[in-house]
C-alpha cells in the first residue's frame, strides 16, 4: 500500500517493517510519529543502530553480545569453568546473573529451535557447543532454555546430543512456571530452580 | 532493566523504545533480531531514518509530508480550491485519493485531538486551518477525520470553529460499509446509518 508520493517516507515505512512484529500499519504509525513528533528519537535510533552494528559482536567463546573479543564473564578467571549454563538470549544470561546463584560460565544460543522460522541446530551453534563441552573440562551442562514448547525442544535436542557423548546434563527445575520466559521470573524462583536442578 | 554489560546494545534497546507501542520486551527482541539475523535490515532502517529526516518536510500549504516546499496536490492547479478535505494523516489522504472521487485540496492534521497524549488544537495546526479557509476562497470544508471518539471530537472542534465563521462544513457520511451484510455490522454503525439515511 503506497502511502504517499514521498519516496523517503515510503522507504522509511518499508525499512521499519523489517522490525519483528511490525506490519504496514505499525510501520506507518512509527514513521509518522518519528517525523512529526520525535525527530530527536529518530536520530537517536539511527545513531544507536550505526553504533551497535559497528561495535557489537559475539563473544568468541559464549556467543553473547559483547564489544570485545571476549565478554566480561568469559574473561573472568574466577568463574567455574566446570559448569556451563546454556541460555537462549543475553537477556536470559543477565537474569541468571542477577540471581547471584551461579558462578559458572555460559553458552548463549541466540535463539531456540524453531523449524517454522527456519532456525535449526546449526543456527544456534550447537556444533560449537558440543565442541566446547568436549574441550574445556566442562563437567556439567545446565540447560536453562525457556519452559516453552520451543525451549523444551531445544533443551531436549541438546540433552540428547550431549548425553550420547557422556556429558552430565541437568535442566533448571520446574520451579519456573511453565509457559513463562526466564527473564520475567522472579529471582527467588530462578535461584530455587537452580539449586533443585536435576 | 539492564540486559547486558554491552552499552551499545543497551543504547539500541533504549532507542527502539522510543518507537510508539514498543516496550522493553519488544525493543530487546528487535535489537537481538537486527544484530543477530538482519544486520542488513538494521542498516536499511538507519539509512532510511537519516534520509527521511534530511529530506521529508511538511507541505507549507496542507501540512502533509513532502520533499519540496509544496506537495504534488497543492501544486496541481487543476484541483478544485473551493473544497478542502480535512484528514488526520498522509495515509488517510492517500486513501481518499485512491477513491478517485475527490478533486479538491486537503488539510492534513498530522494527528487528532488527544488530551491524554497532550495533543491539542495548536498541535494540529487548527489556527492555520482557520486562516487558510478564510483566505483561499474555500467554500466547503469536508471533515474526514476518523469515526472514533478522538476523531469525532476533532471533527466537532473544527466544525464549531468554522461554523462560527460562516464556513460551510460537511462530514463524511456514517453508514454501512459497501459490500457488508447487515447482520455483521455493529449496532452503532447501523443506528448511525439509520439516522443519517437520505
Ligand atoms: Zn563470553
Ligand atoms: Zn500540500
UniProtKB/TrEMBL annotation, chains A, B:
<dbReference type="GO" id="GO:0003677">
    <property type="term" value="F:DNA binding"/>
</dbReference>
<dbReference type="InterPro" id="IPR023627">
    <property type="entry name" value="Rcmb_RecR"/>
</dbReference>
<dbReference type="GO" id="GO:0006281">
    <property type="term" value="P:DNA repair"/>
</dbReference>
<comment type="similarity">
    <text>Belongs to the RecR family.</text>
</comment>
<dbReference type="Pfam" id="PF21175">
    <property type="entry name" value="RecR_C"/>
</dbReference>
<dbReference type="Pfam" id="PF21176">
    <property type="entry name" value="RecR_HhH"/>
</dbReference>
<dbReference type="Pfam" id="PF13662">
    <property type="entry name" value="Toprim_4"/>
</dbReference>
<keyword id="KW-0863">Zinc-finger</keyword>
<dbReference type="InterPro" id="IPR015967">
    <property type="entry name" value="Rcmb_RecR_Znf"/>
</dbReference>
<dbReference type="GO" id="GO:0006310">
    <property type="term" value="P:DNA recombination"/>
</dbReference>
<feature type="domain" description="Toprim">
    <location>
        <begin position="82"/>
        <end position="177"/>
    </location>
</feature>
<comment type="function">
    <text>May play a role in DNA repair. It seems to be involved in an RecBC-independent recombinational process of DNA repair. It may act with RecF and RecO.</text>
</comment>
<feature type="zinc finger region" description="C4-type">
    <location>
        <begin position="59"/>
        <end position="74"/>
    </location>
</feature>
<dbReference type="GO" id="GO:0008270">
    <property type="term" value="F:zinc ion binding"/>
</dbReference>
<dbReference type="Pfam" id="PF02132">
    <property type="entry name" value="RecR_ZnF"/>
</dbReference>
<keyword id="KW-0234">DNA repair</keyword>
<keyword id="KW-0227">DNA damage</keyword>
<keyword id="KW-0233">DNA recombination</keyword>
<dbReference type="InterPro" id="IPR000093">
    <property type="entry name" value="DNA_Rcmb_RecR"/>
</dbReference>
<protein>
    <recommendedName>
        <fullName>Recombination protein RecR</fullName>
    </recommendedName>
</protein>
<keyword id="KW-0862">Zinc</keyword>
<keyword id="KW-0479">Metal-binding</keyword>
<dbReference type="InterPro" id="IPR006171">
    <property type="entry name" value="TOPRIM_dom"/>
</dbReference>
<dbReference type="InterPro" id="IPR034137">
    <property type="entry name" value="TOPRIM_RecR"/>
</dbReference>
Amino acid at each position: 500500500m503506497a502511502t504517499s508520493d514521498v519516496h523517503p517516507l515510503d522507504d522509511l515505512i518499508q525499512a521499519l517493517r523489517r522490525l519483528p512484529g511490525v506490519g504496514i500499519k505499525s510501520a506507518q504509525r512509527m514513521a509518522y510519529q518519528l517525523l512529526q513528533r520525535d525527530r530527536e528519537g529518530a536520530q537517536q535510533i539511527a545513531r544507536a543502530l550505526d553504533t551497535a552494528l559497528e561495535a557489537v559482536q559475539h563473544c568468541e567463546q559464549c556467543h553473547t553480545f559483547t564489544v570485545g573479543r571476549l565478554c566480561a564473564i568469559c574473561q573472568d578467571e574466577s568463574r567455574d569453568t566446570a559448569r556451563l549454563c546454556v541460555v537462549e538470549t543475553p537477556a536470559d544470561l543477565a537474569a541468571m546473573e542477577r540471581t547471584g546463584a551461579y558462578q559458572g560460565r555460559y553458552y548463549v544460543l541466540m535463539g531456540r529451535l524453531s523449524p517454522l522460522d527456519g532456525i535449526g541446530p546449526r543456527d544456534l551453534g550447537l556444533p560449537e557447543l558440543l565442541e566446547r563441552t568436549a574441550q574445556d573440562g566442562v563437567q556439567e551442562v545446565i540447560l536453562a532454555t525457556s519452559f516453552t514448547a520451543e525451549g523444551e525442544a531445544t533443551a531436549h535436542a541438546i540433552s540428547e546430543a550431549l548425553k550420547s557423548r557422556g556429558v552430565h546434563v541437568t535442566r533448571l527445575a520446574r520451579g519456573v512456571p511453565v509457559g513463562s520466559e526466564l527473564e520475567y521470573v522472579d529471582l527467588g524462583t530462578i535461584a530455587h530452580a537452580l539449586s533443585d536442578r536435576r
